[in-house]
Amino acid sequence: MNKIVKETVVVKIPASTANLGPGFDALGMALSLYAWLELSIAETTEVNLYGDGMEELPTDTRNLVYKVAQSVFQKAGMTEQPLKISMYSEVPLTRGLGSSASAIVGALVAANEMLGKAFSDQELFYMATELEGHPDNVGASLFGGIIVSSWDGESAPYVKITPPNALETCVIIPDFQLSTEKARHALPEQYSKSDVVFNIGKSSLLVAALASGQLQLIKQAMQDRIHQPYRAALIPGMSHILEQAVEQGALGAALSGAGPTLIAFIDSHSEHKEQLENFMVSTMKREGITAKTMWLSPDHFGTRVIFESKELIHELPFMELIKGDGY
Ligand SMILES: Nc1ncnc2c1ncn2[C@@H]1O[C@H](COP(=O)(O)OP(=O)(O)O)[C@@H](O)[C@H]1O
Ligand SMILES: N[C@@H](CCOP(=O)(O)O)C(=O)O
User: Fold this and answer.
1) 256-306: per-residue pLDDT in tens?
2) Which phi and psi (to 5°) does residue 292 adopt?
3) Model's pTM, two decimal places?
4) Residue of the CA atom closest to atom 11 of ligand 1
5) Has 153 been labeled as part of a binding site?
6) I need a surface site. Which of 5, 22, 134, 246 has the fewest CB within 10 A?
7) Which CATH number fits the domain that encloses residue 206?
8) From ligand 2's centre to the CA of 47, what distance in Å?
């Protein structure tokens, strides 16, 4: 019989970039940008959200975190539990950096921790994939590193690749939202054999290049004909950035998830970092798009439980706690 064994849990969840160009719905990498979620059993439900844009999300039982946490309790054979939810997120909403995956994975891990780990990581990954509809972002946020996975509607086997040490990324985040749902509607129902063969080759080569640390292969491997060409019309400047990024010092570049964020991979020792960043910013600016850049590294750890005990957590208010050193 499952029961609550921890009344308060805090988890730290990384953002993610999906697809990495050709690996549509199959590849994802966790990034050093985070959300923190505190989940507690309460008398009545209360949702407190902090961070840019978080005020647009519901603060009642319609909240995604609340719904996902309840789905874990329900699967464990329990009734609905009133919850206090506090979440601070650095992950920009609806920009292609996996904010929905971070909310889903955070809620699953925290609720499962409250139940004394009633479900295995593989089961959580399966539940997360079903909720998100594809395994790429949720796999990366849950496990960290680069996750290669395949979802056939029934199971989601995966392999974790440790990102090469020298891999660093520059993301450019446009000042407008593009929902994953809208960007998926831009895709055709059918593809030509040559485009499918092209993507199988590129995606396989990219996985092999990343697994073996052959960064010089990325520029040939990070190309796509399945989703990026159809989504480019939704993101001014995207085609130019993807075409020219290697000339400007990148190892390769891609649309991050469903966009509108673009991500360039670069060797962390490269002398061209400033040149690459300036190129991305000026391209967007020329298109009349305000955007901000961030330098991010791969996150290796995935979602972590950072506090488990009620005694510890109540020594500090939530915001102070997550801003403390080392969290
Ligand atoms: N912390 C959160 N709490 C509740 N819902 C969230 C949270 N983060 C994201 N979401 C939901 O996910 C949506 C964004 O998902 P999506 O369109 O897939 O973009 P993204 O690339 O950011 O994942 C938001 O509009 C919101 O409904
Ligand atoms: N494979 C998905 C990834 C969506 O990622 P997100 O970060 O934009 O939610 C897709 O390309 O649709």
Assistant:
1) 999 999 999 999 999 999 999 999 999 999 999 999 999 999 999 999 998
2) -120, 150
3) 0.95
4) 100
5) no
6) 5
7) 3.30.70.890
8) 26
